[in-house]
Amino acid sequence: MPPKSAAVKTVAASPTGTVAAAVKKAGAGRSKKNIVKSGGLEKTKKRKSRKESYAIYIYKVLKQVHPDTGISSKAMSIMNSFVNDVFERISAEASRLVHYNKRQTVTSREIQTAVRLLLPGELAKHAVSEGTKAVTKYTSSRDYTIPWTNGRLK
Question: Is 44 within 8 Å of 33 (Cβ atoms)?
């Protein structure tokens, strides 16, 4: 019996009647795709790795604000970098606030304070109100229970 890490795969017979067998290691198929050629030979094709991006969300907001305006891929890349940078700054500041207050949990309060510290004046006010609105919408849209309370809200 072969070890669990290897599995035997039989490839369909070619027109000449030969059958090829290939040993495929478990987990190796995640980044490669087996392609069977007409001659019965197997060739592996590397899959494209997925890149996470805020592009679809940036595009949706752009269309809400300016429906007739487009955006170039270079500009989209810059906007994506900007969103990642702001996210990183807010999370770092919130983490610092938690550390200063000798706490262990980052809550919405720390995020809100970090936003107030990082963003200037009116921009901070709008960001806080939009964040509060989003949290309210999220909590009201689902059956919200705190996991460690066994279904009881305090």
Answer: yes
| Segment holding 57, helix H or strand E | helix 55-65
Which CATH superfamily includes the segment(s) 55-139?
Answer: Histone, subunit A (1.10.20.10)
Q: Give the residue, 72 or 18, on which the prediction is more confident.
A: 72
Q: Helix or strand or coil: residue 38? A: coil
Pairwise CA distance, residues 19 & 39, whole Å: 10
Task: Tell me the average pLDDT across 85-99.
Answer: 97
What does the domain layout of the chain look like in residue ranges?
6-46, 55-139
Question: What angle is formed at CA 74 by the lines to CA 88 and CA 62, rounded to 5 degrees?
Answer: 75
Of residues 7 and 143, the one with the higher pLDDT is 143
CA gap 34, 154 in Å, rounded = 54
Amino acid identity for residue 118 in this structure? L
Q: Are 95 and 113 in contact (CB under 8 A)?
A: no
Specify the residue for token string 């066994």.
150
Residue 27 has pLDDT above 90, yes or no: no
Torsion angle defined by CA atoms of residues 104, 109, 113 and 114, in that order, rounded to the nearest 10 degrees: 50
pLDDT averaged over the chain?
A: 80
How many whole angstroms separate alpha carbon 120 and alpha carbon 131?
16
